[in-house]
Structure to design on (126 residues):
């Protein structure tokens, strides 16, 4: 089991880099699992490369982010991330994303997110 201090340290590095859209990748495990980017396809995106691609696309929609709340217990954490979104149609929205993390072997091993998918569907052209 991972300790809370290591989990917090990994998340601090991740979110500092994530907010700048660079420098967050080193704390991600090679076999990372990401769940929640597409609620119609509940299977996780598997692997670090797959997650980097998800974030490459997602990064086009947010202009700023900050951690509103972080609760860490051992190798697990809950984070409320607050994002400033600008969609391709020009809509500007601020919203929260619930992010549930798991740490294994000294790296961020998985992330499950929960957010308002309807707002994304309405503002991103297909």
């Amino acid at each position: 089991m991972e300790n809370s201090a290591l989990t917090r340290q990994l998340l601090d590095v991740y979110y500092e880099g994530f907010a700048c859209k660079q420098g967050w990748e080193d704390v991600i495990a090679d076999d990372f699992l990401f769940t929640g980017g597409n609620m119609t396809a509940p299977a996780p995106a598997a692997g670090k490369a797959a997650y980097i691609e998800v974030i490459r696309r997602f990064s086009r929609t947010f202009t700023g982010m900050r951690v509103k709340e972080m609760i860490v217990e051992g190798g697990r954490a809950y984070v409320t991330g607050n994002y400033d979104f600008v969609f391709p149609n020009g809509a500007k929205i601020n919203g929260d994303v619930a992010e549930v993390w798991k740490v294994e072997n000294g790296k961020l091993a998985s992330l499950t997110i929960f957010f308002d998918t309807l707002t994304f569907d309405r503002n991103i052209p297909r």
